[in-house]
Amino acid sequence: MKNVAARNGLIILAASAVFYDSASAQSPQAAPASASLSFSVVVGRWARTAGPYVININSVDVNGKLHASYANPNPLPFHTAEVVRDGSGLKLLFELRAGGYGGSTYTLNYDPASDSLRGVYDQVVVKQKFDVVFNRTR
User: Fold this and answer.
1) Is 39-137 CATH 3.30.420.40?
2) What is the mean pLDDT of the chain?
3) How far is CA 24 from the centre of its chain?
4) Quick one: 9 exposed, middle or buried, by C-beta within 10 A (0-12, 13-18, 19+)?
5) Partners of 95 in the beta sheet?
6) For the chain, which residues make up each domain, given as ranges?
7) Structure confidence at residue 100 (pLDDT)
8) Does residue 99 contact residue 76 with C-beta atoms inside 8 Å?
9) Confidence band for 82, pLDDT divided at 50, 70 and 90
């Protein structure tokens, strides 16, 4: 029995070695990482498709903090304004606390194909969420 066990061990070992060589020889090349979007791509003036709502993004730092303001139609400051990496894309987060907004938020994704910001406006005061789109204005 010891010879059979030893032979089986050798067979398994040999099969593993062949499998390893075969697998390494046939491994596909890793796809190159897609280029990440620069935070600066979101700098600009963005107008919401429904209503007189505008987000002005004047600048962004390397950590994603946005120097931005909101207008409805009068200017309001954002309590929080930042952009973060979301996979290969960009997600923008804005919070409004001034003028009866009570912590309402915009959570938007930058869509490079349409050069737009798309996402959800959570109006916490009236407890409603709205799908929104902001288009860049020139």
Assistant:
1) no
2) 80
3) 34
4) exposed
5) 80, 105
6) 39-137
7) 85
8) yes
9) very high
